[in-house]
Design brief:
heterodimer, A: 267 residues, mainly alpha, 73% helix, globular, B: 282 residues, two-stranded antiparallel ribbon, 15 helices
Chain lengths: 267, 282
């Protein structure tokens, strides 16, 4: 455990160095957040009755989505890892007395945490200071905060476990670009990044809520905005646990198979 | 000596058969055919990338579809009208991307010093940058945009007249000019900073993303920004009013051509940049 924590710390500190990139990203995310707010305001004004949540819940959803973008963007991948598989430097990793899967997992979590740490506070701060109706209202009850944090971390782990599948699958395909494109971009829609799941037709929503992707950003963001409570919330949390376990077991098995059949060319 | 003999003579004489100077357009097409051959070496990868891109735009479309299905209209625009608006704007953007996104590679050229080489050649710098930066997967974007556009025309309830069609064509041309100008400014900034400025993406990719709804949906303040800072409304909101029959003002048809002025301004910035240019020295 200690060695994986060391990898985690290394990667986390490295991620914190990219402050200029984070500053540039912040501007874009502010604009994105505002534009989203304006779109949904227009829809709200067109027909408030059809809006599936309160407007302030929607504002909270949008701002948290921007603040934690780095947790839930499937395209935050490390090309270094793909390169190490293609070029063969993976051999060094395999020599070490550690599990490749666990090490990469720790690294990925650290990378996302460090990127989000640089970005989330300015965005949250600005969102709290905005005028109504775009203001981010902080949840009042401690139980909401508790469940939000738990599901946020779970969502992050699910996203990482999902990305791990992409890394591991790269062992089996030499040029996995196409597969990766599909795996990366399917997620946005299924996880509620394009439009939140409650805005979809009921049947679509019911199916998507059972899929692993719903646990990624849909659950924590809706819990914080007060849109997901009570029994449905507990069900969503249990589904998160289930899918996280499935994703990790699947990734580990594939990794085992890959390690057994891998041939590193000498050179 | 008849013509034929003269021709044969020129062919035999190496001093005389130097290839005639290509026209600018010919040179540009030559660049593209070179790029085409390069990309076709990796066919599978190309096809999968195009498929992936389709998925991306399809998601955006699904987002619009589900929202419009729930709310039926937004600020008085129906589903068909929004899709038409998105299709036109996206196609204008993709045309610009196809022709002039080569500017994206420019910051790298400046940093690596390859721009010096381009300046030495007796051809327009813009032409060379556009030609060498052409990428075929942008043709994939263009194809998707064309599909979206065709679908938009199909589902919108517009009763087409000559002038409405003309307005749409002007919107497409204007959109292409506007985004070309933006790509150009984006690149010109590299003359001053040596590095691309990421926030400029807001004006290009961001605009593509949010141009899916008519701009008045975003409120008055955004309308003002999108008219006086970057004139998006000239190629989207105003002519759209004419196409959808909300206004009879004929001036709106040619409003998109106002972007020529914008492009001119961008070209001035570009020229100023070239004069300001100092090689990175590598």
């Amino acid at each position: 455990m200690k060695k994986y924590f060391a990898f985690f710390k290394l990667r986390f500190n490295m991620g914190l160095q990219y402050r200029a990139a984070a500053a540039a990203g912040l501007t874009t995310q502010f604009v994105w957040g505002f534009m989203e707010c304006f779109v949904y305001r227009a829809f709200y004004e067109s027909d408030p009755g059809s809006f599936p949540m309160t407007f302030s819940a929607m504002a909270a959803y949008i701002w948290l989505q921007q603040a934690f973008l780095m947790f839930f963007s499937a395209w935050t991948l490390e090309n270094e890892l793909f390169d190490s598989i293609r070029e063969g430097s993976i051999a060094y990793e395999l020599c070490r007395p550690i599990s490749v899967y666990d090490m990469w997992f720790a690294r990925s979590v650290a990378l996302r945490l460090s990127r989000a740490a640089l970005r989330c506070f300015p965005i949250l701060l600005l969102a709290i200071l905005l005028p109504e109706p775009f203001r981010l209202h902080l949840a009042a009850s401690p139980s909401i905060w508790f469940w939000f944090l738990v599901t946020l971390i779970m969502g992050l782990l699910m996203m990482v476990a999902y990305c791990m599948l992409m890394y591991v699958l790269a062992f089996f395909t030499i040029s996995g670009d196409g597969l990766r494109t599909v795996m990366v971009f399917g997620v946005d829609f299924l996880a509620g990044a394009i439009i939140p799941l409650p805005f979809m037709p009921e049947t679509v929503q019911r199916v998507l809520e059972l899929l692993p992707f719903a646990g990624m950003q849909n659950v924590p963001l809706r819990i914080f905005s007060g849109d997901l409570t009570g029994a449905p919330m507990l069900r969503a949390v249990l589904l998160q646990v289930f899918w996280l376990a499935v994703l990790i077991v699947l990734g580990k098995c594939l990794c085992k198979i890959a390690e057994r059949r891998i041939v590193v060319q000498g050179g | 000596m008849n013509e034929r003999e003269e021709l044969l003579k020129t062919r035999r004489d190496p001093a005389l058969c130097r290839e005639p100077a290509r026209s600018s357009m010919g040179l540009y097409l030559h660049y593209i055919s070179l790029k085409l051959r390069e990309i076709m070496e990796y066919k599978a990868s190309f096809i999968l990338t195009v498929l992936g891109q389709f998925l991306v735009s399809f998601q955006v479309f699904l987002g619009i579809y589900f929202l419009m299905e729930r709310f039926h209209q937004v600020m008085g625009y129906t589903y068909g009208e929004v899709v038409l608006c998105y299709g036109i704007f996206l196609l204008g953007y993709s045309l610009a991307e196809c022709i002039s996104r080569g500017f994206d590679a420019f910051s790298r050229m400046v940093r690596q010093g390859t721009f010096d080489r381009i300046m030495l050649r007796p051809r327009s710098t813009v032409l060379q940058i556009l030609g060498s930066g052409f990428e075929l997967n942008r043709l994939g974007h263009l194809l998707q945009a064309a599909v979206m556009f065709a679908y938009g025309v199909y589902v919108s309830d517009v009763s087409w007249t000559f002038f409405r069609a003309l307005a749409v064509i002007c919107m497409l041309i204007g959109g292409a000019l506007l985004f070309t100008g933006l790509f150009m400014i984006y690149a010109a900034l590299c003359f001053f900073t040596l590095e691309g400025l990421e926030f400029m993406n807001v004006f290009t990719d961001g605009a593509k993303e949010y141009g899916k709804y008519p701009i008045d949906v975003y409120g008055k303040r955004i309308m003002r920004l999108c008219t006086f800072v970057v004139p998006y409304t000239l190629v989207q909101y105003y002519p759209l009013q004419y196409v959808l029959g909300r206004s009879q003002n004929g001036l709106l048809i040619i409003a998109p051509l106002g972007t020529i002025l914008f492009l001119g301004l961008c070209a001035i910035v570009w020229r100023a940049g070239i004069r300001h240019y100092q090689s990175a020295g590598s």
